[in-house]
Design brief:
four-stranded antiparallel beta sheet; alpha+beta
């Protein structure tokens, strides 16, 4: 099995957009991830938290048909933790995914007696800032300035 990760995608409003669910279905269809479980978490304007399964929404039927069956591994504790990151009047799609693209590497690491001992998720804006700083430093070095 490849690395497994729980991802929480937050959205404005108390209803997920169909395009977001469709994008997840496309990743699954392309074989990049295997969706193990998902959970919709909504934090109402008054701060009340509710959860539901994707299959409970008719508007996602086309996308969820492509996603396939899921195990029920995400529960109330997971939803409560995700809800702590949400502002009132917003929603989140929690995804428990296996990174299928990394399965062969995971098998080779396991066969060599290794294991994944930890991972760190780097927010995209941090990566972008680092890339911009690097580009600026290269430009300065190339111009001979310090």
């Amino acid at each position: 099995m490849g690395p497994v990760e729980c991802v929480v995608l937050a959205f404005p409003g108390e209803r997920l957009k169909v395009a977001a669910v469709t994008a997840v279905a496309e990743l699954r269809r392309a074989g990049q991830v295997r969706l193990i479980d998902s959970l919709v978490v909504v934090k109402s304007a008054s701060g009340e938290v509710s959860t539901s399964e994707l299959v409970e929404y008719e508007e996602y039927d086309e996308a969820t048909a492509v996603i396939g069956p899921e195990a029920n591994l995400l529960g109330p504790e997971d939803a409560a933790e995700a809800a702590e990151t949400l502002e009132p009047g917003t929603s989140a799609l929690m995804l428990l995914v296996e990174h299928v693209w990394a399965t062969r590497a995971a098998e080779a690491i396991h066969e060599a007696g290794g294991r994944i001992s930890g991972t760190v998720r780097i927010p995209p804006h941090h990566v972008q800032q680092a890339l911009e700083a690097h580009s600026e430093a290269v430009a300065v070095a190339a111009s001979g300035r310090s």
